[in-house]
Amino acid sequence: MKKWITQSSEYVYQSNFGHLRKDRCELPNGFVIQDYYVNEYADWVNAVVITKEQQIVLVKQYRYAADDFFVEVPAGKMEQGETFEQGILREVREETGYTSDIQPVKLGEFFVNPATQTNKIATFLIVDAYQASDQQLDNTEEIEIVLLNFDEFEQLVQNNQINTQLFTVNAYYLARRQLGK
Fold first, then answer.
1. What is the pLDDT of residues 61-83, one digit of tens each?
2. Which of 161, 138, 158, 159 lies closest to 146, judged by CA?
3. pLDDT tens digit sequence for 15-54
4. Which residue, 45, 57, 83, 93, shows the most beta carbons closer than 10 Å to its own?
5. Model pLDDT for residues 104-135, shown as the tens digit of each residue
6. Considering only CA atoms, which of 18, 50, 52, 24 is closest in space to residue 37?
7. 113: which DSSP letter?
C-alpha cells in the first residue's frame, strides 16, 4: 500500500475556527481526485469529570448544526502552546468551574475523522473533582452544568433518553474501563 501524492493544494477558506483546503491528489493506481477537501482544525480535548460524590460532571448546550440541545462531557479546542493536559484543565475550569487536586489521566488520543479532518482529540479522566469557581464562558457559549450518577448516564445513553455525541460516549466508556467498572 502506498500513500497518495498531493499534486496541488489551495485554501478555499480560512478562519479562527478552522480552514478548508482543496487538494488535487493522485492515488497509487494513477487515478486523480481533482477536488479533495480537507478540514484543518485545532486539536480538541475532552474529559470525563467525576466528583468526590461520584457524580459525572456534564455540560448541556445548544448545537447549531444539529439544531438541538446536547449533554456532553466538558470539551474544547486547544489553544496555541498548550499541552493536552493544560488544555483540558482550562476547558473544564472555564465550562464548569470544577477542578481536582489529582492529575488528569490520559485515556487516549484519536484522530477525529482522518478521511477529511487533520485534528485529534485527547480524552482524559479527572476524579475527585470539586467546584472551585464560577464558569468562565466565552461570548459564544451558554452552558448548563448537569450532574448525574456515573451509571445513570449510561442508562440514559442506552435508552436514547439523552442527546449526546460520539466523543462523549467514547470518553465515558474509556473512563468506565479505566475505573474497572
1. 999 999 999 999 999 999 989 99
2. 161
3. 998 999 999 999 999 999 999 999 999 999 999 999 999 9
4. 45
5. 999 999 999 999 999 999 999 999 999 999 99
6. 24
7. -
Q: How many CA atoms lie less than 13 Å away from 31 in the CB half-sphere?
A: 5
Sorted by sequence, the CB contacts under 8 Å of residue 126 that are 6+ apart come out as 47, 48, 49, 50, 88, 92, 98, 100, 102, 104, 105
Which grid cell is 13?
Answer: 477558506
Q: Quick one: which of 129, 94, 126, 82 has its CA closest to 107?
A: 126
For the entire predicted model, the pTM comes to: 0.92
Q: Please list the residues that pair with 120 across neighbouring strands.
A: 111
Other residues' Cβ atoms within 10 Å of the Cβ of residue 177:
11
CB atoms near residue 134 (< 10 Å): 8
**What pLDDT, on the 0 to 100 scale, is given for residue 114?**
97
Alpha-carbon distance of 27 to 1, in angstroms, equals: 10
Integer CA distances (angstroms), 117 to 2, 29, 31, 107, 121, in order: 20, 23, 22, 21, 11
Q: Which CATH number fits domain 44-178: 3.90.79.10, 3.30.70.260, 2.30.30.60, 3.10.580.10?
A: 3.90.79.10
Q: Which strands make up the sheet holding 19-26, listed edge to edge?
A: 5-14, 19-26, 32-40
